Amino acid sequence: MTERLITHLRHVDLAVPDYQTQLDFYTNAWGLKAEHSDTGLTFLAAEGSPEQYVVRLRQSADKRIDLISFGAKDAADVDTLAGQLARDGVRLVSEPGDLQTPGGGYGFRFFDNEGRTVEVSSDVGVRQHRAIEEGESIPVRLSHVVINSADPEGTRAFYEKHLAFALSDTLMHPHMGEMMWFMRVNSWHHSMAIARCPHPSLHHASFELRGLDEYMRGTGRLLRAGVEKIWGPGRHLAGGNTFSYFLDPSGNTMEYTTELEEIDEDTWHPHLYDSTNPDVADQWGTANQMNEFVATKSFNDPDKGLFVAPPV
Questions:
Q1: Do domains 6-122 and 141-299 have the same CATH topology?
Q2: The whole model's pTM is what?
Q3: 141-299 adopts what CATH topology?
Q4: How confident is the model at residue 293 (pLDDT cuts 50, 70, 90)?
Q5: Residue 259, pLDDT score
Q6: In the list 82, 147, 199, 215, which could disulfide-bond 209, CB 3.0-4.6 Å?
Q7: Distance between CA atoms of 110 and 187, rounded to whole angstroms?
Q8: What is the 3-state secondary structure (H, E, C) of 73-120?
């Protein structure tokens, strides 16, 4: 197996036409903090995270995933990984070099098998962060990102072969086969998951809250604010984490979660879960039923940024 050279998920960068509406949502409703803003570009930090930012928001005519960013231990690992990808025929967007984003660092970008832009970086400056206090219902960190794929088997194989992702669990449907793959790069059950979909797009981005009480308070705060909830609150079986899924103004699904499982990678064996079992979707039985409405919302709009690198 390829040596794992990435350490963790850093941030997800989104481009949206309704930039100001989105910025208002992520700061005033979702609970992120805007920093390092420029015209049509804002870096959004989670107060409890050492990452410089967990979401980058960019104004664009096209709605797309601009970038998914992962961390590496050091510049040597960044160089090694870039060399391996190039030798394997993966298309690099940029060669390793100094980053011009907040916190600096050293990194490079490449296209994955379906054309998403991915960044790997090291030596990014640590943000001055703080402990989230009891009862404070704002995100602590970016937990994971789930992508929709028209070729999920190929996408899984790409991330396993080139980035040493490991499979934690799989969801299947008796009539449709395997539907979602939970992939890890460290002891967290998943940093990314891949969902079967007619087209590549963002399925959802998930944000960890301090604990169960804060997660419920956050869910309630968004409901009171009139943010559209599509699924939850509940607790998944795969990963064991809680979930409340909401739509941002652009129609991207965002999740509040907590208590994502940490596993022993040396002894873990992946499960194959039947998604039609109600306990698989929601162990508590409190969430609305997973139905065609919820699934369709999570399909999102087709990503318009495939094999087109973001301008920044």
A1: yes
A2: 0.97
A3: 2,3-Dihydroxybiphenyl 1,2-Dioxygenase; domain 1 (3.10.180)
A4: confident
A5: 97
A6: 215
A7: 25
A8: CCHHHHHHHHHHHHHCCCCEEEEEEECCCCCCCEEEEEECCCCCEEEE
Contact 17, 60 (CB under 8 A): yes
pLDDT at residue 1, as a whole number = 54
Task: Please work out, in degrees rounded to the nearest 5, the angle formed at the alpha carbon of residue 311 by the alpha carbons of 309 and 312.
Answer: 105
Domain with residues 6-122, CATH architecture: Roll (3.10)
Q: Where are the beta strands (DSSP E) in the chain?
A: 6-16, 33-38, 41-45, 55-59, 64-72, 92-98, 106-111, 117-122, 141-149, 166-173, 177-184, 192-196, 201-208, 229-235, 242-247, 253-257, 271-274
Contacts of 106 (CB under 8 A, 6+ apart): 75, 78, 96, 97, 98, 99, 121, 122, 123
Asked if 155 contacts 112 with a C-beta cutoff of 8 angstroms, the reply is: yes
Decide if 179 contacts 196 (C-beta within 8 A).
yes
| Whether the Cβ atoms of residue 214 and residue 259 lie closer than 8 Å to each other | no
Q: C-alpha angle with apex 198: 193 to 203, nearest 5 degrees? A: 35
Burial class (CB in 10 A: 0-12, 13-18, 19+), 66: buried
* Closest-CA residue to 24 (of 218, 250, 280): 250
Percent of the chain with pLDDT over 90: 94
Is residue 50 within 8 A of residue 141, CB to CB? The reply is: no
Position 48: which residue type?
Answer: G
Q: Any idea where the domains of the chain sit in the sequence?
A: 6-122, 141-299
Please list, in sequence order, all residues whose beta carbon lies within 8 angstroms of the beta carbon of residue 295, skipping any fewer than 6 positions away: none
CB of 66 closer than 8 Å to CB of 41: no
Which residues does residue 204 pair with via DSSP β-bridges, in sequence order? Answer: 146
